[in-house]
Predict the 3D structure of the following.
Amino acid sequence: MTNEYWQEEIETMSRPELEKLQTERLKATIKQAQNAPFYKKLFKEKGLSEETITNLEDLKKFPFTTKDDLRSHYPFGFAAVPHKEIVRLHSSSGTTGNPTVVLHTQKDLDTWADQVARCMYMVGARNTDVFQNTSGYGMFTGGLGYQYGAERLGCLTVPAAAGNSKRQIKFIKDFGTSVIHAIPSYATRLAEVFQEEGIDPKKDTNLKIFCIGAEPHSEEQRKRIEKMLGVKAYNSFGMSEMNGPGVAFECKEQNGLHIWEDLVIAEIINPETLEPVEDGEIGELVLTTLCREAMPLIRYRTRDLTCFIKGDCPCGRTHRRIARIQGRSDDMMIVKGVNIFPIQIERILMKFKELGMNYLITIETIGNNDEMLVEVELGDVKIDDYTKLQALTKAITRQLKDEILLTPRVKLVEKGTIPQSEGKAVRVKDLRKLI
Amino acid sequence: MTIPQISVFLENKFGRLNEILSILNKENIHVVAATVADTSDYGILRLITSDQMRAYKLLRANDVSANLNDVFAITSDSSIEKFSETIECFTNAGISIEYMYCFSCNKKAILILRCNAIEAAAEVVKNNGLNFLSEAELSNL
């Protein structure tokens, strides 16, 4: 019988053993964190140290870390090792003020590669597979994160990077690609291009597994991808603050994502009261790293909403499962894998003196793609000319694209037509079906 | 020499044109000429009424994005020769016409013209002896 696990001992560890491991690693992490300027000061003020930890419950004595903390200590305020030991830096895709920076030692990168390899192995990828990564490379962790993970696993790895669907399809055919990582909207896009090219992915390719992530998606969208491409699609969850892809991943059961509890401690809290929620109840995911050297994070508020799935998984893995991400506890939107805050859009719109104060961002699925519509009220300006209105629309579109990295449809509307609720304007309408 | 024209930025929404015209109708303001082109998201309604200032204030008071712009109202008889000659005067002077529309009234053709250079266009009207209508004359049509 072939081995079903990449790291069987860890993946199937009994709960008491796993919790013992977590406690040991938590103590070491708290100790390590105090090398970082941010935590050194914070823990000293609060009288906390590794001595505070006697069991896992003691973690609750520590304050949360937020994205704002990361931003305000940009770029190296969270570095817990000397510079010479840092070998890589990743940065977030969204930009509201300072970006967030994540630092890695060589050991951190090794751990991450194994983490991604573990996920890919779990869904059936083997060293005989050809893996094609359609993620953007560069700062986006879906590129290098999967690259090193797939290489660790031993796949023939094709760093195709994002875009150029016809070339992607040529690679898939020529190299015999069997496993792909893609954001879900791109997976559906690929399926469309196959159709346009008259190629049947079920007959004409070796495709069998899609890892889909970095963008919220529904069960319907997964089923559509599976049906159109004749593959199995597995939900991949991660974020750059927690390395990137591989934080949690679906197994072949396709019923929730195993969160790797040897690498993180996962809590789910009520974002209002900050108290833990019951298993099965939706709340905000809070993560503490357990193996990070360069940049330990303690009780990091991810803002992603999910819940723990009750019960044991038939796959034999003991690491708990979380449900697919149900939304955000802040106003961040994820469109086509890009993190966008309404404030970024607002800042651009407010630069145009021709425009009024109110705007509405609508995200909806058109065909198989997520599209963003930005409606903005025209201000009290003397424009009596279609050419000028068109030029204005174009200029807004271009500047928004430079800021948020995707091209929205911009529509000018009359003053007073953007709906208001309780005196406060509704800024975002997300019409995508996620559940 | 120019007359004020009302421009209204209109969302492409069913019934919006009717809403705006009924504001004027209720106050007995007559529409002398109106034009709106078809675009997908929005349009610009251009209006000449029996009382431009009153119409303008009324629309603004009803939260309609109305503006005033200076345009020329040139009259001629309805022949193609005369129409062509009129436009030629502007072309010869190197003046671009941004948009125009015409209507006829009492066998007179009335041409509403918007130019890029208003003062230079006014010179053309004067030098070529073109007949133009004042705001008062237009209101009394």
Observations:
- The interface with chain A takes residues 5, 7, 9-11, 37, 39, 41-42, 44, 46, 63-65, 67-69, 98-99, 114 of chain B (CB under 8 Å).
- The domain at 70-139 of chain B is CATH 3.30.2130.10 (VC0802-like).
